[in-house]
Every structure is written in structure tokens, then in C-alpha cells.
């Protein structure tokens, strides 16, 4: 795991990021020239209504999609890499080594136990945590050998978080992590994400349409119609435990 | 078009690759069923018409020599409607430009009746040329198959040794005979070496000194009369004249071979298509299960909109019917190709008046019903649970699949197994039936391949045993009359003859414990080498000085064991009786036969030491001189040229087996692709969400492909040995169904046959997997973030 670094080093830098689906009269402009800087260890919430472009932006930063134009760079160990134009092998390596994903619907493998779901990722990583340690970090140290069907929704999402961080990624990308959960369970999940960001210094980007969740972020970027229309720094962050919706 | 039908059409289009593979499997099943049964019906129809139009007799009796006045007594027997008496003898034929002589069966023909169009029983159909004339040169008709094989035409001239005298025979026409639909000396088709010749019956009688006598009788029975009592009466009447046992149509050589072939067609037309339809049913079940699972919410919506359970079930059954219907249509077209192809092969072996391919409407109807039934059954079991769900319940996502610790974990072996392997093992344990079906289907493909290819091994074994172990001699000769054993010295003086071994074969009747069998006894010298008895397991068996050796088929028929004493009656010559001890039982492939030492046989027969056959070893460099000498030897009646027979055998039987094996290989590949491709597609469909998630987490395409295909690979590897065992079982079953009281072929499957079957199915599996592997490249990594499985 990297030593804590001052929160000034840039992790992501995007300039003029544009994404257009289709062409002509049916073209959909998902992103319209987005400029973005995210520093190491920062907790950023992308807020916006459905269709605002937040998922598209996350997908590009996560190496799942490519932009129509613009640049998106990520920096690690002093080296800067361009995401736009990278081929599938480079993007796969990027996701494998540097990115942790948390999905809205957990996307766990049902035929594996909690520990084995995390081990799927640690088996690929160069310097991972032990699966047991990652699960302990999210409060599931006692549920290692339970299958997915034996876990609640919140527990499943926390397994997914453990899976995402077990490889010691540089960034943690969470797409609507509480979208399928009730408030109480969602808070537990957000506490786990908050814990990871604070204790491991992992740069964290969370997508949500749920405004109260933005209170726990360092910075909130509100998107609308493919643009960042508002940037807000939370001078007084609210702990996850204090959130409700 | 109703919206629900538009959905059906679009679902079919979306599933087009799977629709195609399933339809191919159905098509093969339908083609096999319709094709084989159409060939069966065509052959049977041609045969029945030929027998009816040409008045094939019901009873056939051979005697050594009986007076023609027995005609009235035969006609007076209960149940006999008509009698025909013939003079029949085999003779050596010298064809122009052909070195080895061939054997001809000469039969007397009543020319007056032939010209008048009133031939009576076993009537001939003139194919080419004209009927012979009585006066002038000796004119003959010959079996059309032989004429074609030897390029003989009306107007050609041959020489024949008739009763020791060389005669010129003028060929004037070719014919088909219901008595010789299949002409063979021993059972294998050999149109090049054996032909049937008809000459004026007066000339026949003169040539063979049969004035006032006959040696073959044909009887027609009244309608509804059973043959068995008549056979017994005929035997009693002809016994004093060297009768060797009357037979009905069921035992007449040509009719029996045709009947056996028809029975085999029924077996093939039932067993193999059943396998394919079963496999198609299984694949449909899997595909539609997946279809219903992915459309669960759509089914819920249809229910909510007011569609009944029955309407929804019918919608999915229509999908299955559409696929099966495509298969039926394609199968019917394929059946014509297969059927006509098979019939053309039969046309080379059998000769009827006419042979036309016909598909009966009932076959089409039954095949459609069978395919439809299989489709409906496969569909219903897939959909009935979901279709019966309440709408609200159907709208809920299905409960996540529940997994349990596997045997591997319960045995404490988890740490030795990778996570990916655990996924495969757990999927197997959670859906054992699905895995079992896939393994079974692949195993059946292997078994099918083996059941087609093993015939080549079996035929190679038969050729090896018969032509290289039993008959080590190059030529067999048959004498017109029994000759002393010392004929071996004379034979060795023929050009090129290295060794000569006389042997003797006589018709006998054996009895034991109330059972009786008419068969043939062959006497070999103790030191026989060129023609001998071979046990399938022990190899060559030397003739003991005393006692008789039984073939296993005969021993089974008589319930005889070593040590038993059997009653034996010689049917020709002096009709002597003897009691002999069974000293050995040999596992041989052909015939209910018995063997003994030649000297002992001659002593028992009490008719001197005459022999009628000899096996010769001939220097291949001197064959031309040898044949010329044989043709000039009036005492040699018939000749069997091993090399020529093997060549003819390879040309027809081996070639046909190769074609048959090739077709079954294609079918096996189609089945393997159908099963594996669909299993892989279903697996991808079920796990696309899971696999896309793993791609997002950083797994490469190759790593994800391994996870997808490992399960399939494991099923393939498990299926191969099961398929080998099943293939052996299927081959054994087919051999048993085709065996009779006179044929007992061992099941011989070479290791190379097993290996090639496994490799072929493995290759088909790999090709299918690679086709599906390409789909992995198209996994939508973006949508998986947002979509619940």
C-alpha cells in the first residue's frame, strides 16, 4: 500500500472531454467538453439526474469507455498515462492494477463465497491485501465462508467494496453503491467506503443521484446535460453515519 | 400479424445460430428415420412385387438325383399348389480375356414355356436380348448383375465345362430371377466371380446325364398354408434320393439375405434417429429454459396484460415447433439424398424387376409427429414452472442461486483447488442434471462416431480371419465328382502350384437331445494349413484324430458341450449314420458348422476316401499358366480365386462401409457441434453478466474465456471415456441385432477408432467453443454496471 501522500498530487486530469453516441439527428451528447482535476486521496461525489453524464464520465475514467474527443489522463508514481486512445489490453491492465469498481447491484459471483469473491481480484493483483483483511476492513470478518445467497444486500455490497479495495487500487469508483439499498443499509455501505478512503487514502469517486450523500464528500461535482455545472467544496463534511434520506 | 407472433419471429431471428444447430440435429434424426424406412419400403415393395410377379416358390428342396415321376407325389402333398422340377449344376466358365475362370450355376429352362410367356414358378424377367432357341448352338441367358460386372452382352461367347466337357455357350440375353436377387456362393456379394446361367432344359439334362431325373424342386403352397409341415413331408418323400433338407423362403439364401437386410434397415432407422431426436429434445430444453429465464419479466408482463398460462405456454411451444419444423423440412430433403444414395448402393447388389425410391406419406407424418413431440416435451419441461407463476411473483427477480459447500470442500481439499476451478465444480454440483445431459449428449456423439467407424474394423477383421487365417491358400477348387485324396499329387503338377490340400464337405443332419440341425461337415487333414479351422480367440485349431469340432453357433443351437456324443447322418451318398464325440467347440464367425479329421470322416462316411474340394497355394508369378491349366482341366467344376474375391469385396462392401462410416462421422460432428455450441451459448448467456463484471474488475478476455469454457471442457473430457464405452455398447447392440443363427461377428473396435472418434468430437467441441469465445469480445462492460442480472 502506498504511503499517505499529501492531497495535492493529481490522479485524474481531463480536458475537453466529449462523448457523443450515435450521429446526425439521433446523436446523444453525453458529455460536452468536461474539464476535471481530481487529486490523490480525494473523496468526490458526482451528482446529477439520470442522463446528466455522470456515469459516462465515470466509465471513461474507469477505462470502460472511450471519449469522442478530449483527453483524460491518470497519474501514478510520477508517470502520466493517457486513457483516451489506449487499446483494450492497456485498459484491462489499468483496471486490473489500479482501479477498484463498486457496482450498483454488487455484481458478485454467486457460486463463490465472500472470501472467494475477494480472492478473484487478489489472485490477479501484484501486491494485494489478504481477502480476510479486506473483508475485516468492511466489517465482514465473520462472514468469510458465506455464499452470496446467504448475505443481505448491504453485506453483499460491502463484500463488493472489499473486493474493490483488496488489490490496493489507486482509485475506487462507485456507481450508485446504495442505489439498491434502503437508507440504513446504505449508510453502512457508505461508512465502509468512507473508512477505506480515510484509512487507505484511496482516491474515491462516487456517483449518485441522491443529494444527501454528497454531504460526505470532499468535493461535489454536479453534472447536468453533459457538463459540470457546479463545483462545491464541502468545508464541513458530514460523516456517513450522520446521513439520512 | 399479431404482436405475439412478431415477438416469436424476432426471437427466432435473435437465436438464429442456435436455431440452426438444433434444426440440423432434428434434420439428421428425421433424415435417418425417413431415409432408412423409405429405403426399407422401397426395397420391400420391389421385392414383394418381384416375388409376386415372377412367382417365387415357397419351398425349395435339393436332392442328389430323384426321378421326375415324383412330381405327381409332390403335387399331391397337402398344401402344395404347384411344383417345378429343375436340373441345377455348378460349372467352370472361361470368359474371353479373363485369366481366372469363374463359377457359373447352370439351370435348365423350359424354353417352350418361356417363349409362350408361361414360365411358372421362379419366372425370369428378360432384361436384354432374347430367349434362347432350342436348336443349333448352345444358347444361354445369364444373370444381369453378372453380365454388367463382367461387361458381357448378348452375342458374346464363353466356354463352360459342363460335366467335364468343354462347351461353347452363346449368350443371347440377360435376366433377373427372383430366386437369385442376391447371387453369391457363400454370402458376400461377388458378381464378378459367380453368375447364374439358364440353358435349354433338354440340353441341361443331356449335358449332366440327368435323363428322367431332377435335383432341385420348387413348390408353391396354397394361400395360408404353413411351410413347416410341408417341409417335413417333402423331406420324407425325397429322403431316399439324397435330399439335404427342404427350406422355406426364410432359409433360401437370396431371400434370407434380402430379408436380413430389411431387418437391419429397420434397426438402423430406429436406433440412430431416436438418438438424434433425444439429443434435439435435450438441447431445446436447455435453450428454451434459458429463453424463459431471460424473459421472465416479459412473461410477467404478458400475464399482467391478460394472456393466459396456456397462451404463454403455447407461444414458447410454437418457438420449439418452428425450430423442429425447420429441421423436419431440411430432414425430408436430406432423407431423399440419403435414401436415393443408399438405394443406388443396393441396386449394385440386389437385382429386382425395378427398384424405385419411394417415400410413403405416413413416414412424413410420423417423422413430423416424432419431431414435434420431442420439441413439445423438451419445451414443456423447460417452461411449465415459470409459466405457472403469478404475475407479481414473475415480476420479481428470481432468487439468487443458492450454492452449497461441495464434496471438494467437505473433504478438506479446497486449498488445492483454484477459485476458478471451484466455480466450475460448484456449477456442476448445483445443476447436476444439466451437466449430465451435456455429458450424455457429447458421449452419444462419440458413440455414434464409433458405431459408424467400427464396421471398417469389423470388416478388416473378417477379411483377415477369413482370407488370411482360415483360407491361407490362394485358390479353392471344386471337383465335378469325388476324387481320391491322392488328387493332391496331380494338383501339385499344375503350373505354379506349390502345395495342395484336399478337403471334403458333405451335408449332414446332426441330432442331440431332441434337437436336430441340417448343416455341413467338413473334413480337413490333421496337418491342414491352406484351409483350416480358426477360433477367434485361440487361432488355428488342428483337427484331432477322432471326434468332431463344432462351431459355437452350432453348439448353441444343439445345446452341445465338449464330451457330448451327437448323432450324425450323411444326407448324400450312402446316407450313413454315426455317433461322434464333440471334442472341441470353436468360436468362429460364420455358420452352424462342424469339422473333423478327413480320414476319420471318410471312415465314417463309408464311401471310400473321396474328396470334392482342394485348397491350393500358387506362385503369384505363375498365375496365368495356372489358370490356363485349370481351364483345361475338365474335372474342376468351380474355382474360388481369393485375390479376385478380396478385390471385389473391397470394391463393394468396404467402399460402402466407408461411405456409411463417413456419413455417420458427419452426423456425429453435427451432433457434437449442436450440443457443445448450444451449451456454450447458454453458459455465456447465463454468465454474461458475471463475466462482464470480471472483465470490469480487470480480468483479460483469455482469463474470462477460461472461466466460461472450463466447465464445457470438463464435460467434454468426462464425456469422452463414457462415449467410448457407450460406443462399444452401441456397436455390440447393433452387431447383436444383426447377428443370426448363421452369423456371429465379434465386436472389433481398434484403439485408433476410439482415438479418432474422440479427436473428431474434441475438434468439433473446440471449434464450437471458439465460435462462442468470439462473443466474449462483445460483452458490454458498460451496461453491466447498471443492470441487475
Plain-language structure description:
The complex is a heterodimer of chains A (245) and B (789). Chain A is α/β, with parallel strands linked by helices and 245 residues long. Helix content of chain A is 27%, strand content 28%. In chain A, strands 6-7-8-3-9-10 form a six-stranded mixed β-sheet, with helices on both faces. A four-stranded antiparallel β-sheet of chain A has the order 2-1-4-5, with helices on one face. Chain A is globular, with a radius of gyration of 17 Å. Chain B is an alpha+beta fold and 789 residues long. A six-stranded mixed beta barrel of chain B has the order 3-4-9-6-8-7. Chain B has a six-stranded mixed β-barrel with strand order 13-14-20-17-19-18. In chain B, a hairpin with a 3-residue loop joins β15 (533-535) and β16. In chain B, α2 (16-53) runs antiparallel to α11, α15 packs antiparallel against α20 and α20 packs antiparallel against α21 (701-738). Chain B is elongated and about 100 Å long. Chains A and B meet through α2 and α3 of A and α14 and α20 of B.
Q: Could you outline the blueprint of secondary structure elements for this entry?
A:
The complex is a heterodimer of chains A (245) and B (789).
Chain A: E1 10-21, E2 28-39, E3 43-47, H1 54-61, E4 69-76, E5 79-82, H2 88-98, E6 99-102, H3 114-122, H4 131-137, H5 153-165, E7 171-175, H6 183-200, E8 203-208, E9 219-224, E10 227-233
Parallel strand pairs in A: 3-8, 3-9, 6-7, 7-8
Antiparallel strand pairs in A: 1-2, 1-4, 4-5, 9-10
Chain B: H1 3-14, H2 16-53, E1 59-67, H3 70-75, E2 80-86, E3 88-94, E4 102-109, H4 111-116, E5 125-129, E6 139-143, H5 144-149, E7 157-162, E8 165-176, E9 194-200, H6 201-207, E10 213-221, H7 227-238, E11 247-248, H8 253-294, H9 296-305, H10 309-349, H11 361-387, H12 391-395, H13 407-410, H14 419-430, H15 432-470, E12 475-484, H16 487-492, E13 497-512, E14 515-524, E15 533-535, E16 539-541, E17 548-551, H17 552-558, E18 565-570, E19 577-586, E20 593-597, H18 598-605, E21 610-618, H19 623-631, E22 636-641, H20 642-696, H21 701-738, H22 751-776
Parallel strand pairs in B: 4-9, 6-8, 14-20, 17-19
Antiparallel strand pairs in B: 1-10, 1-11, 2-10, 3-4, 3-7, 5-8, 6-9, 7-8, 12-21, 12-22, 13-14, 13-18, 13-21, 15-16, 17-20, 18-19
Helix pairs in contact in B: 1-10, 2-8, 2-10, 2-11, 2-20, 8-11, 8-15, 8-20, 10-11, 15-20, 15-21, 15-22, 20-21, 20-22, 21-22
Amino acid at each position: 500500500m502506498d504511503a499517505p501522500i499529501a492531497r495535492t498530487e493529481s490522479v485524474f486530469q481531463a480536458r475537453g472531454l466529449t462523448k457523443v453516441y450515435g450521429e446526425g439527428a439521433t446523436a446523444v451528447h453525453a458529455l460536452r467538453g468536461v474539464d476535471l482535476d481530481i487529486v490523490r486521496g480525494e473523496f468526490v461525489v458526482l451528482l446529477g439526474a439520470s442522463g446528466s453524464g455522470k456515469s459516462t464520465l465515470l466509465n471513461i475514467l474507469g477505462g470502460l469507455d472511450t471519449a469522442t474527443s478530449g483527453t483524460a489522463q491518470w497519474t501514478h508514481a510520477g508517470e502520466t498515462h493517457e486513457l483516451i486512445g489506449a487499446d483494450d489490453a492497456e485498459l484491462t491492465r489499468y483496471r486490473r492494477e489500479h482501479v477498484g469498481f463498486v457496482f450498483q447491484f454488487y455484481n458478485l459471483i454467486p457460486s463463490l463465497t465472500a472470501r472467494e469473491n475477494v480472492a478473484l481480484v487478489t489472485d490477479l493483483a501484484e501486491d494485494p491485501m489478504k481477502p480476510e483483511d479486506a473483508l475485516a476492513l468492511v466489517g465482514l470478518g465473520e462472514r468469510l465462508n458465506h455464499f452470496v445467497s446467504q448475505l443481505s444486500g448491504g453485506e453483499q455490497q460491502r463484500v463488493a467494496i472489499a473486493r474493490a479495495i483488496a488489490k490496493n487500487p489507486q482509485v475506487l469508483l462507485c456507481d450508485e453503491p446504495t442505489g439498491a439499498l434502503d437508507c440504513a443499509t446504505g449508510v453502512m455501505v457508505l461508512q465502509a467506503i468512507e473508512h477505506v478512503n480515510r484509512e487507505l487514502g484511496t482516491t474515491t469517486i462516487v456517483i449518485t443521484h441522491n443529494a444527501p450523500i454528497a454531504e460526505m464528500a470532499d468535493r461535489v461535482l454536479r453534472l447536468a446535460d453533459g457538463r459540470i455545472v457546479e463545483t462545491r467544496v464541502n468545508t464541513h463534511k458530514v460523516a456517513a453515519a450522520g446521513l439520512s434520506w | 400479424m399479431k404482436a405475439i407472433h412478431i415477438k416469436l419471429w424476432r426471437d427466432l431471428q435473435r437465436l438464429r445460430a442456435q436455431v440452426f444447430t438444433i434444426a440440423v440435429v432434428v434434420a439428421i434424426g428425421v433424415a435417418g428415420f425417413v431415409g432408412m424406412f423409405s429405403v426399407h419400403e422401397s426395397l420391400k415393395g420391389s421385392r414383394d412385387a418381384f416375388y409376386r410377379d415372377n412367382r417365387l416358390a415357397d419351398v425349395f428342396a435339393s436332392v442328389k438325383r430323384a426321378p421326375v415321376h415324383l412330381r405327381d407325389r409332390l403335387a399331391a402333398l397337402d398344401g402344395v399348389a404347384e411344383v417345378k422340377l429343375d436340373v441345377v449344376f455348378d460349372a467352370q466358365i472361361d470368359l474371353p480375356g479373363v485369366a481366372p475362370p469363374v463359377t457359373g450355376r447352370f439351370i435348365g429352362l423350359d424354353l417352350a414355356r418361356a417363349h409362350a410367356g408361361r414360365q411358372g414358378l421362379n419366372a425370369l424377367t428378360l432384361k436384354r436380348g432374347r430367349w434362347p432357341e432350342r436348336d443349333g448352338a448352345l444358347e444361354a441367358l445369364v444373370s444381369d448383375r453378372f453380365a454388367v460386372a463382367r461387361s458381357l452382352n448378348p452375342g458374346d461367347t464363353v466356354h463352360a465345362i459342363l460335366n467335364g466337357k468343354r462347351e461353347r455357350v452363346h449368350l443371347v440375353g440377360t435376366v433377373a430371377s427372383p430366386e437369385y436377387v442376391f447371387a453369391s456362393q457363400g454370402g458376400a456379394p461377388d458378381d464378378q466371380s459367380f453368375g447364374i446361367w439358364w440353358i435349354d432344359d433338354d440340353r441341361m439334362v443331356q449335358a449332366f446325364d440327368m435323363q428322367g431325373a431332377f435335383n432341385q424342386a420348387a413348390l408353391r403352397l396354397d394361400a395360408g398354408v404353413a411351410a413347416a409341415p410341408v417341409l417335413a413331408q417333402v423331406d420324407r418323400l425325397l429322403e431316399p434320393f439324397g435330399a439335404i433338407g427342404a427350406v422355406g423362403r426364410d432359409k433360401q439364401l437370396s431371400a434370407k439375405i434380402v430379408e436380413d437386410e430389411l431387418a437391419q434397415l429397420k434397426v438402423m432407422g430406429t436406433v440412430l434417429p431416436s438418438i438424434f431426436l433425444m439429443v434435439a429434445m435435450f438441447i431445446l430444453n436447455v435453450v428454451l429454459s434459458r429463453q424463459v429465464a431471460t424473459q421472465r419479466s416479459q412473461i410477467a408482463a404478458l400475464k399482467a396484460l391478460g394472456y393466459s398460462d396456456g397462451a404463454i405456454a403455447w407461444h414458447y411451444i410454437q418457438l420449439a415447433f418452428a425450430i423442429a419444423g425447420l429441421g423436419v423440412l431440411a430432414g425430408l430433403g436430406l432423407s431423399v439424398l440419403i435414401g436415393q444414395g443408399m438405394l443406388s448402393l443396393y441396386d449394385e447388389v440386389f437385382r429386382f424387376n425395378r427398384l424405385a425410391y419411394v417415400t410413403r406419406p405416413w413416414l412424413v407424418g410420423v417423422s413430423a409427429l416424432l419431431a414435434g413431440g420431442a420439441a413439445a416435451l423438451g419445451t414443456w419441461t423447460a417452461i411449465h414452472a415459470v409459466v405457472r407463476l403469478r404475475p407479481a411473483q414473475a415480476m420479481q427477480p428470481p432468487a439468487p442461486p443458492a450454492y452449497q459447500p461441495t464434496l471438494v470442500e467437505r473433504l478438506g481439499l479446497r486449498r488445492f483447488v483454484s477459485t476458478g476451478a471451484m466455480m466450475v465444480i460448484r456449477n456442476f454440483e448445483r445443476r447436476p442434471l444439466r451437466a449430465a445431459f451435456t455429458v450424455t449428449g457429447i458421449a452419444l456423439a462419440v458413440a455414434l462416431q464409433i458405431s459408424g467407424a467400427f464396421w471398417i474394423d469389423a470388416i478388416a477383421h473378417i477379411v483377415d480371419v477369413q482370407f488370411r487365417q482360415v483360407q491361407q491358400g490362394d485358390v479353392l477348387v471344386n471337383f465335378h465328382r469325388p476324387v481320391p485324396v491322392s488328387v493332391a499329387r496331380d494338383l501339385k503338377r499344375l503350373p505354379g502350384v506349390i502345395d495342395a490340400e484336399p478337403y471334403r464337405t458333405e451335408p449332414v443332419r446332426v441330432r442331440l437331445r431332441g434337437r436336430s440341425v441340417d448343416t455341413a461337415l467338413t473334413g480337413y487333414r490333421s496337418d491342414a494349413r491352406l484351409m483350416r479351422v480358426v477360433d477367434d480367440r485361440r487361432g488355428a485349431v488342428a483337427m484331432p484324430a477322432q471326434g468332431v469340432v463344432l462351431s459355437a453357433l452350432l453348439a448353441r443351437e444343439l445345446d452341445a458341450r465338449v464330451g457330448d456324443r451327437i448323432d450324425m447322418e450323411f444326407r448324400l451318398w450312402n446316407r450313413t449314420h454315426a455317433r461322434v464325440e464333440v471334442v472341441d467347440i470353436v468360436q468362429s464367425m460364420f455358420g452352424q458348422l462342424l469339422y473333423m479329421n478327413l480320414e476319420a470322416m471318410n471312415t465314417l462316411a463309408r464311401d471310400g476316401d473321396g474328396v470334392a474340394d482342394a485348397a491350393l497355394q500358387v506362385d503369384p508369378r505363375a498365375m496365368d499358366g495356372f489358370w490356363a491349366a485349370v481351364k483345361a482341366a475338365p474335372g474342376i467344376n468351380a474355382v474360388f480365386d481369393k485375390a479376385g474375391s478380396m478385390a471385389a469385396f473391397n470394391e463393394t462392401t468396404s467402399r460402402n462401409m466407408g461411405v456409411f462410416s463417413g456419413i455417420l462421422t458427419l452426423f456425429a460432428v453435427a451432433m457434437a457441434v449442436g450440443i457443445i455450441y448450444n451449451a456454450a451459448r447458454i453458459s455465456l448467456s447465463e454468465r454474461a453478466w458475471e463475466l462482464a463484471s470480471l472483465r470490469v474488475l480487470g480480468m483479460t478476455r483469455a482469463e474470462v474465456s477460461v472461466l466460461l469454457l472450463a466447465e464445457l471442457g470438463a464435460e467434454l473430457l468426462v464425456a469422452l471415456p463414457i462415449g467410448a464405452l457407450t460406443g462399444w455398447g452401441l456397436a455390440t447392440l447393433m452387431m447383436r441385432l444383426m447377428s443370426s443363427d448363421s452369423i456371429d461377428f465379434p465386436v472389433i473396435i481398434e484403439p485408433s477408432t476410439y482415438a479418432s472418434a474422440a479427436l473428431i468430437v474434441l475438434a468439433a467441441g473446440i471449434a464450437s467453443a471458439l465460435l462462442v469465445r468470439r462473443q466474449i469480445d462483445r460483452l458490454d462492460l458498460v451496461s453491466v454496471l447498471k443492470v441487475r442480472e
